[in-house]
Amino acid sequence: MGVARLMLLVLGLAEVVGGSYSLRRRHRLARAPEPGTIVDVERHFTGKSDAYFPVVSFRTLDGADMRTLVPQGRLVTPHTIGKPVVVVYDPAKPARAYIESPGLRYGGIAFIIVGLGFLILAALVR
To answer: Mind listing the pLDDT tens digit of every residue in the chain (126 residues)?
Structure first.
């Protein structure tokens, strides 16, 4: 097996596994979408530059008020404080929350498609 084929195989498998994990996580979070608000923005150094991460406030299904940092940062423009958002969270760990977005919704599918493409290329490389 050539190096190129091996690399394509490893990349393809990693993409498919990562995409599958993302879809499972998204499915678990989809059970608990709640309206929320961006109440603050925190600036963190990410290793190369600063990124702005929103802090959201929302109420869980059982009525608990939550305020948590969301791991969906932006590099250039910070999120708008006071902006209403849809928050999805893990009911078992409500502090693990995300803002509903197309990337969150479709990212896993995109990873799986790219991974399958790598696997097909690995099968075609001689």
So the answer is: 688 888 998 999 999 998 888 777 777 776 668 999 999 999 988 788 889 999 999 999 888 999 999 988 888 888 889 999 999 998 888 888 999 888 777 888 898 999 999 999 988 887
Angstrom distances, CA of residue 109 to CA of 19, 21, 93, 106: 6, 10, 24, 5
CB–CB of 115/16 below 8 Å?
yes
CA gyration radius, the chain:
18
Among all chains, which residue has been given the structure tokens 């596994």? Answer: 17
Q: Structure pTM?
A: 0.73
Length, in residues, of the chain? 126
Identify whether the C-beta of residue 35 lies closer than 8 Å to the C-beta of residue 58: yes
